[in-house]
Amino acid sequence: MRKYLALLLIVNITIRGYAQPVKKAVFVIVDGIAADVIEKQPTPFLDAIAKKGGYTKAHVGGEKDGYSQTPTISAVGYNSLLTGTWVNKHNVWGNDIKAPNYNYHTIFRFFEEQYPQKKTAVFSSWEDNRTKLVGEHLPATGNLKLDYRFDGLELDTINYPHDKKRDFMHRIDEAVIDKATATIKNEAPDLSWVYLEYTDDMGHMYGDSPEFYRAVDLMDKQMGRLWEAIEHRRKKFKEDWVIYITTDHGRDARTGKGHGGQSDRERSTWMVTNAKGLNDHFKKGTPGIVDIMPSIANFLGLRIPRNRLMEIDGISLTGPLSATSPNAILENGKLNITWKAAGKGDAKIWVTTTNKFKEGGEDEYTLMATVPVQSQRAVVDVTNLPSSFYKIVIETPDNFLNRWVIVK
């Protein structure tokens, strides 16, 4: 009997030793910092995080002059990250957030549906991020409920009186970081979003200036505190944490005060992460803000339903990819579909002429061709499928790509 109990003890210890650490994810949006600024200003804390994973230039704005061209405006960028889609799908065109299309789920909704027992959090210097974009407690988001929330301080003009220099916004960012770090250290939510505004305020007021660069330095120190909290959890509790830090837009080239357009600098952003297994899309490409959501989903083991995977514009920044960079044009009744091969296997080409998904419905796709991924091209005859709109999905062994063709 003693031998049996001893054996059970050894087995139990062995199983614990091989148990996978609990995975936790944090993503951070620090507002309005173009890539050239983050690259020329000293950011030792961001650099320390990047040494664990990587840094890359990135972009917002969708496809310039294409159907997915997306305003380089704050809330628009936030929702592109949250949903992994561009504005032609998520439908947030400005900071008024008039009519988000909640049929394109956020990372929080996917996570809540698959892991209702796990904990989610939003720490934000702008309340609308939670109430309108994430859509907490809204019927349209399935009455999604977060476990931890800290926001709305911009509405508290007693404790945070609005001064002309907008120093109050820095104080709010500080309170947000204090709450985020304390909650991560003590409660360790499984999925958290941290949003800080002050850098964008200084950009709008002063443009490319010492005041703006000082705000970047303050932000870097805040990221150091957040990273310290994550490292505390990782070392003490042996948890597996990933963090993605990015910005929502760049700034205009002339003054650095404006944004919203499609100039190179307004579209130019960046990403810092400690993620392991970063692929060539991250290392050699210029990924989009839409790629962060599927990367976090990949890390957390989310199983996104097939019909929703077919709509997501982003692709994972970690792990294997079979194909990237999809394109499609209609010529003489044929769809010429191209991509860049990143792996092997077959590419299945699915086509539909409807977009019922945006209304909450289902599109009926037809498998039009199966070709080797390495061919990087498929020609699909659609003369018997005349339409002014085609939605194309390229299904490969490791990832989905999608394109629209709109006949004007």
Provide structural commentary.
The protein has 14 helices and 14 strands. By secondary structure, the protein is α/β, with parallel strands linked by helices. A hairpin with a 4-residue loop joins β13 and β14 (400-406). The termini are far apart. The chain has two domains: 20-309, Alkaline Phosphatase, subunit A; 323-406, Immunoglobulins (Immunoglobulin-like, Sandwich). α8 runs parallel beside α10 (210-237). The protein is 34% helix and 22% strand. It has a seven-stranded mixed sheet, sandwiched between helices. Strands 11-10-13-14 form a four-stranded antiparallel sheet, with no helix packed on it.
Distance between the termini: 80 Å
Taking pLDDT < 50 over at least 5 consecutive residues as the criterion, the unreliable ranges are 4-11, 13-17
CATH architecture of the largest domain: 3-Layer(aba) Sandwich
Helix content: 25-40%
Average predicted local confidence, pLDDT = 95
Sequence of strands across the biggest β-sheet: 2-7-6-1-5-3-4
Shape: globular
CATH homolog superfamily of the largest domain:
Alkaline Phosphatase, subunit A
Protein name: Nucleotide pyrophosphatase
GO molecular function: hydrolase activity
Pfam family, one: Phosphodiest
InterPro entries: Alkaline_phosphatase_core_sf (IPR017850), Phosphodiest/P_Trfase (IPR002591)
